[in-house]
Design brief:
By secondary structure, this protein is α/β, with parallel strands linked by helices. The protein is built from five helices and four strands, in the order αααβαβαββ.
């Protein structure tokens, strides 16, 4: 399925956004407001991410799909916190590249990243135990 006009625009907008490293000030504000710094990647707080992890009963051996992962929030956080494996999916490759580097640096089990719209994911049914898509309009 080819990307829609909106998906192409979203990819372009976020590609530009992810090519700029957030400033220390942005990181500090994000830590104070959300509880962690992920590059002004959304509005989901650490507390809300923890609630998601608990509600989804994420644990070691589970596979999580993070749709609209951006720089990896909250999928990488949930994987680090619960021991689950995560796959990062988003339209702009720049965000996924940042997420994969962060996963490697923090030794989080990230099975990989997929450049894909939420409406055209390349996975068979039942590939994941849970899915998150925070701060994303699908």
């Amino acid at each position: 399925m080819s990307p829609s006009k909106d998906e192409r625009q979203t990819r372009a907008d976020f590609s530009a956004r992810y090519s700029v490293r957030p400033s220390r000030l942005i990181d500090d504000i994000e830590r104070r407001v959300l509880g962690a710094a992920w590059g002004a990647n959304g509005f989901t707080t650490v507390r809300q991410a923890d609630l998601l992890g608990a509600a989804l009963e994420l644990a070691e051996g589970n596979r999580l799909l993070d749709i609209g992962t951006g720089r990896g929030w909250p999928g990488l956080y949930l994987a680090a916190r619960t021991g689950c494996e995560v796959v990062a999916a988003d339209l702009p490759i720049e965000g996924i590249q940042i997420a994969l580097r962060r996963a490697a640096e923090e030794e989080v089990v990230c099975l990989g990243g997929v450049v894909s719209s939420a409406r055209d994911l390349p996975f068979a049914p039942g590939s994941f135990d849970a899915t998150v898509h925070t701060d994303v309009l699908c």
